[in-house]
Amino acid sequence: MKKLLLLSFLCGVLFVSCGEDTIDNSMFIGKWASVSNAKDGDAKDAALMLYVDETGLEVQNGSWSYRPFTSDEYWDYYIDVDSVLHISREEYDGEDYDTEYYELDLSFSDSYNTLTLWYKPTFSALRKYTFIRR
């Protein structure tokens, strides 16, 4: 009987350790505006915006200076247990699929009203993007 209990316990531990590596994304869902240009009057309308739902992230006012958010696109995403935001999208050019994939470190303020993303391009300096909840 003790062997059966021990075996049951070990199987339970193995199954628990194989759980998903993602975290609850509810604090990420919403509308986010870039702080870098969202404070100015006219620039407020041109601020980098992220519209986030349960599975996707829509970019508005993307530009080359906001790499990897270079254009207005829709990205699939998930957040792993290490607070890394994984974004990806596929584009079909008529013959082949092209996939883009990026990892950004993510953190929130204590009140979850400020979001900070860090992106490290391969051949460039670390980029920091700060957003406020709208």
Percent range for β-strand residues: 35-45%
Distance between the termini: 58 Å
Biggest sheet statistics: 8 strands, antiparallel, barrel
Structure classification: mainly beta
| Approximate helicity band | 10-25%
Shape: globular
Lateral arrangement of strands in the main beta sheet: 1-2-3-4-5-6-7-8
Question: Any idea what the radius of gyration is?
Answer: 19 Å
Count of discrete alpha- or pi-helical segments spanning 4 or more residues: 2
Count all strands and give the number: 8
| Stretches with pLDDT under 50, minimum 5 residues | 1-19
- Rounded mean pLDDT is 81
What is the succession of H and E elements? HEHEEEEEEE
Short key terms for the protein model shown above:
134 residues; mainly beta; 8-stranded antiparallel barrel; 15% helix; globular
